[in-house]
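Appendix B. One record, verbatim.
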Amino acid sequence: MKFAQNLTHRQSLLKALTLAILVLASVMPPTVLANESQKATFNSTTTLQTILKSSHRSVANRDRDKYRHPAQTLQFFGLRPNMTVVELWPGNGWYTEILV
């Protein structure tokens, strides 16, 4: 009986998450969804390195950078200054601190 309740709870959670993603995708401007629509003319590596070394970030979070590789990760995802980023379930805000 408990397994059936857990399964029902997981299915409900999955449906809610799917709905949230669909709603977010529907309200995003097309330029955010079409990542290649505008090419930025800035040096993203320099910009990200400046942000990562910024004094607004906590020392503990800056220490984690060597393990999490934020600059490489955000470059992989094609992050540009003109983009809007939505962070779902941010945890303790490590990425939020970088993206602010």
